[in-house]
Amino acid sequence: MSDGQRSPTSDGQIVVSGLTKQYKNVRAVNNLSFTIQPGRVTGFLGPNGAGKTTTLRMLLNLVTPTSGTATISGHRYADLSEPLRHVGAVLEASSAHKGRTGVNHLRVICAAAGLPRQRADEALALVGLTPAAKRKFKGYSLGMKQRLGIAAAMLGDPRVLILDEPANGLDPEGIRWMRGFLKGLAHEGRTVLVSSHLLSEMQLLADDVVIIAAGQLVRQGPVDQVIGSMTQGVRVRVRTPQAEALTTALKGQSATVDADGQGALLVSGVDAATVGRTALAAGVELHELTTERPDLEGVFLELTAGKAGIR
Ligand SMILES: Nc1ncnc2c1ncn2[C@@H]1O[C@H](COP(=O)(O)OP(=O)(O)OP(=O)(O)O)[C@@H](O)[C@H]1O
């Protein structure tokens, strides 16, 4: 892209502002606003039908918003002069002409976009596909197709990368590779926006999260802060041979006590120190005393509870 399009303050930033998409019967995205920063991996999370794909498609000018704006580095995608040099996107597993080799598939894109031919080889190397460069697309596994899609997105050496469910169909080794690859891109200062249902994976991958449900923003922030803000989910797990005595003593401290069905008690409303002190005062023997914080999965379910995903 030309220097004229770069702005020092907004370079690489994605800004979604009041974005709305009304289909005939469904408001897929409803007055959505959030900002994504460069140099970080941001996880875009939401239950099925939350509006993630529609949002990404509006960002990439594949769907026209009913109202609101979505910009990348201060510009609408449609206004970027050389979009592939600025934004790489993988919206679904790569599709290509079945009889074409991986490297030829990328060369065709390079030719159409005015990118140097050798970028095809460089991008294949980047995603570890060099050994399969001359194999035909029809023989590629799903994981190889995902990598080819990412290679295509990287052809223009873009500042911003947008991926819709990139871990779909990958085996554990592929997921580990993807995690390292995307973190590396963010480390280089690029903006990486990834939508996913794999919440446990997001906890390992993302620096920030944007959580939506029913087309609306539910929460945005650094993963740790979003999880840390959920004090409601903090519980203390206790094991004791004197469960009844401990339950009675804790209820006297206004704690809530539930059995976990596997021989332990789950205590909420008081911290671990209070549980230990209460047990000591009541002469109750403890075999385990652990503080449990909700993981992203728990936070996500709690935040999106009651907001029907399928509309
Ligand atoms: N072209 C369309 N016409 C009508 N409704 C649509 C269209 N595209 C999406 N929708 C509806 O908009 C809502 C949001 O869909 P979207 O695919 O954006 O959600 P999502 O969060 O990506 O879901 P998933 O995780 O299941 O892929 C859904 O109710 C969907 O049925």
UniProtKB/TrEMBL annotation:
Entry keyword set: ATP-binding, Nucleotide-binding, Transport
Pfam families the UniProt entry points to: ABC_tran (PF00005)
An MF annotation (GO) of this entry: ATP hydrolysis activity
UniProt KW Transport keyword: yes
Domain of life: Bacteria
SMART domains the UniProt entry points to: AAA (SM00382)
Keyword Ubl conjugation: no
ABC transporter domain span: 14-239
Database matches in Gene3D superfamilies: P-loop containing nucleotide triphosphate hydrolases
Similarity section: Belongs to the ABC transporter superfamily.
Protein name as catalogued: ATP-binding cassette domain-containing protein
